[in-house]
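Standup notes
- HV: blocked on the assembly model, inputs below
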Amino acid sequence: MNKNKGRSRFLVLCLAPATILFFVFMIIPTLNVFRMSLFERGAYSPNETFVGLKNFQMLITDTQFIRSMQNMILLVVIVTIITFGFALVFAAILTREKIKGQNFFRIVFYIPNILSVVVIAGIFSAIYKPENGMLNSIIGLFTTMTDPILWKGETLVIPSLIIAMVWQAIGYYMVMYMASMSAVPESLYESANLDGAGRVTQFFQITIPLIWTNIRTTLTFFIISTINMAFLFVKAMTSGGPNGASDVALNYMYSQKDAGLYGYSMAIGVVIFLFSFALSAIVNKATDREPLEF
Amino acid sequence: MQEKTSSRSGERLYMAFIYLVLALLAISILVPVAWVFMASIKQNSELYGNPWALPAGFYWQNFVEAWNGAKMGSYMLNSVIVTALALVLLLIIALPAAYCLARFKFVGQKLLHTLFMAGLFINVNYIVVPIFLMLRDGDNWLKNLTGTSFLLNNLFVLAVVYAATALPFTIYLLSGYFATLAHDYEEAAYIDGAGYGTTMVRIIFPMAKPSIITIILFNFLSFWNEYIISMTLMSSTSAPRTLPVGLLNLMQAQQSAAQYGTMYAGLVLVMLPTLILYICVQKQLTQGMTVGGLKG
C-alpha cells in the first residue's frame, strides 16, 4: 500500500510540470484560436463581443486573404515536390554509388539546415540584390543586361522564395533518406543487377518501396512544416511585399494581429489549422501502401 | 566487345554528370556562405563595387560597429541566456515525463501520451497570437493587482515558452528510446533497494545519453535560431532582444541606411556559433537524424 502511494506520488511529480506547461502554452492557446475566431476584441481591452461567423464571412470576400492562401498552397506544393524529388535522387546516388568525398557532400548539404531563417534571408538578399548582387553579376557575364533583374519584384518573388526554401530544406531530407536507404540490404541490389535491372528500375522498384514508410511520415510532417517555413521566409525576406505579391496566410494572420484585429486574425488561424489537418489527412490516405519488409 | 566499351564510356559520362550536379549543389551552398564572411570584412565602399572582388583588407570596424553600435553583443548575451535556460528547463521537465509515459502503466497514460503526440501537429507559429494575448492579459491583471508586470518582455518567460512548445517533439523522441529498454534494469535496482527517483536518475538517464545529446542539439538549434515568438513576446522597444530579432531589425534598418558592412558582420555573428557547433558535432547531428526524423 505504502509502495503504491509512493509510486503515484512519483508519477505525479514527474508528469505534472510537463502536463501543466503543455496545457498552458499549447492546448489552451490552440483552443483559444478557435474560440477567439468567433469574437471581436478591442485592440487594448480584454473585452470581447460574440460575432458568430462574421469573421469568416469577411474572409471569403477578402481578396488579400485569398491571394495569401493561394501563395501558401503554391509554395507548399512546389517546394514539397522539388525538395522530395531532389532529396530522394541525391540520397540514392550518394548511398548507392561509390562517390569520392561522400562525407564532404553530406556535411556541406546539411549546412543550410543549421542556419537561422533570418540568416538565410540575409544571404539571399545578397544573392538577389538587383545591383551587384551575386546572381545578377553571374548572369551579367553571359549577357549584357540593360535593366537589372528584380528577383524580389512582383513577378519573380515567388520563384525566388521557392529557390531559397528548397536550398534550406534539401540537405536535411537528403541526409535522413541516406540513413534509411543504407539500411536496405545490398543483396537485393545484387540480385536485381543479375536480373539486368538498371539504376532507374532499381530506384523505383527497390529503394522507394522499401523506405516508403519513412517517406510517408516525413512527407506529412514536411507539408505542415512548409506552411510554417513559408511564413518564416516571407516574414524575413519580403514581409509579404511587393504589394502583397508574396503574402502567405500565416503572414497575413500575423499582420492582422499587428493591426489589432485579433478576432479576424484568429479566423485566419482556424482556416490554416483546418487546411493543414485536411492536407495531412489527404496525404496520409493517398500514400497508404502495404508496408514492405526487408 | 564493342558494346562493353560503349557502356563503359556511358558509365563514365553518368558518373561525370553526377559529380557535376553534386559539385554545383555544394557550390551553391558554400559560395554564398563564404561570400557573407568575405563581405563582413569589406569596407562599405567596396560593397558597391564588383561583388566577387576579394576584400582589400580586414576591416574589423564592421564587427565593432555591429557588436557595440547595433548592440549585437548584448543580444548575443540574451540569446545565450534564453537558449541555456530553455534547454535546462526542457531537460528537467521532459526527461522524467517521457520516462513515466514510456515505462509506467497508470490511469490516463494512453490519453496523455496521445495528447503529447497530437502536439507534434501543432505548429508554434499557429498559436503565437493567443500566447501573446494570454501573457498580455496576465500582465494587465498583474498591473491592476500589484502595479508591476513581468510576463511580456521577459527572457525567463520566453525560455519557458520555448521549453513548453518543444515538449511534444522531445517527449516523443525520448519516450521512444525509453520504451526500447528492458524492464530488468529497474527490477534489479528495486531489489537493491533503490527508489523510483534514484533508479530513474542513476540507472536510466545515463543510458539515454545519446538520445539526450540528440535532443540538446536539435533544440539548441531551434531555440537559437527562433525569431517569431521572440519578436512577438519581446515587442517593447526597451525589451531584451534575442540575436535573430536584432539581426532582422538591423537588416531592415540597413536597407535604408545602406550600411551593408555592419549587416554582414551581424550575419556572421549569428551564424558563427551554430557553424562552430556543427563542425564539432556534425557526426552526432547527422546520425541523430534517424531518430529525429520527424522534426521539420
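- HV (later): unblocked. Chain A has one domain: 37-286. Chain A touches chain B through 91 residues (CB under 8 Å).
- Next: hand off to the docking folks.
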